[in-house]
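Bug #77: duplicate submission created two jobs. Keeping one. Sequence:
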Amino acid sequence: IPPALIVGRFFSAERAKVDENIAIADGISQELEAFIEENSGEDSPLADAMEDDKTTKALATARLKIAKYEDPKGEEAVALGKLIALYNAEATAKKTVKEEQAKLDQLTFKQYGKLTTADVQSLVIDDKWGARFVHGAQAEAGVLTRQLVDRLNELGDRYAETLGDLNAEVARLNARVVEHLAAMGVE
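Kept job's structure:
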């Protein structure tokens, strides 16, 4: 039985908590990347803390010691302090995600021992195969619906003109043919 089925059935709240922590960690990582992007360059506050156009927490910490010595309240010291704070926040968030995922994995593993035959059957038949069957049926129904709509649109375009419109067009063209024949002297 795939662990995801057990998590989905028994531990959805815990999974939501892990997902929430992942989103927080991703947000902090994006904020960190944006801060580095905004403050990197030749004359930027992070320029001296970069090596090969990249910076790390170790480089930022080493440069912060020098920057605090040179100008404790300067732009570089403030930017490096924020950068280190973002690195720390990112590390803490990732650690939290890892711990929460480990707890969820442990709960899932313990749940395997508690499963009854009915639970296993329900998980496999309803959650695994049933979900796959329903998803496949919905996808097939969606494809057939799109094909039907396309065919109806095609038929609608083909038969958009009414019989009365077609008869009027035939009469107009017939009159023109009669005119041309009369002009050529054929009656």
